[in-house]
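Fold it.
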Amino acid sequence: MGTQPQLSIIIVNWHSAEYLRACLASIFSAECDFCLEVLVIDNGSYDGCGEMLRGEFPQVCFLQAPQNLGFAEGNNRAFAFSAGRNLLFLNPDTEVVGPALRRMIDVLVSTPDAGIVGPRLVGPDFRVQGNCMRCLPTILNQVLDASLSRKMLPKWWGLEVVTRESPEPAVAEVVPGTCLMVRREVFVEAGLFNPAYFLYAEDVDLCCKARKLGWETYYLDDAVVIHHGGRSSRLQHDGCYAAVLMRESVRKFLSTNRGPAYAATFRAATGAAALCRVLACSGFWLLASRPSRQLWRAAAKKWTRVLRWSLGLEAWAEAPGGRESSAASPLQVRRAESREQQLRA
């Protein structure tokens, strides 16, 4: 073809083939007038996405990873096969709306200090997903993170850029890896995604590194992407998987950027907060009506697991890169890899 693509879109798939189909359809019907390429890497789920791509989207470059490499490493592997001047890391459970790609490219190319840009993420009902926004974590904003506190103190979580409605790009600390566009040179200079983060915080780490290198991160309110949300994490056998792994990823980030003592304090404070929430959920369970008790029981279970993590009792989450956790803890990964081994035999 001879022409370097303006944009390489990289998608990591894990048991999301049906979402991936809609995602790709939205990309190829998007309002854009530049050359792009799309790369999809399946992170060892063997869910039929390769066959679907060959039949319905033959223009997509498909890569098959033999096991779940994690979000960061999966993206890094696919990046090695890309050629675009700019990169878009996109979740498979998203859909591009109208000219969102064109708008993001325009800002990234025309703004001299823009290294990373991200769109307004909305649910299928087009309501803004404020809970998807990231900020540089601190002990205080992590311990107090809740729906009510986010509404009362939006600046603590980087939500002030979401609440403003303006076509002008807004500087943000972090934009979520759900849909993150970055200059190729910035991604390379930052050292790619850090594979130490199996899932979560790799976007925080990248934006932090880009800023240290002199690049800004921008949020675009007028570029819209639908995010169905949490598809892969919901497939875990244990519904508390995401809650534990998210906090472990934050601990790793804080240890690297604020020091081991700060990270240890974060862990202890998280444990104290988790204990309080377990006790509160137990009390609400006793007072709740029977239909509501299941919700409080699930909440208590989640915070019990977070409490266990704070005490060092969730060793799988601390495995290097999270690779052992993906091979030993999530049941569906084990089953998928077992089926693949049987087929190869």
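The radius of gyration is 20 Å.
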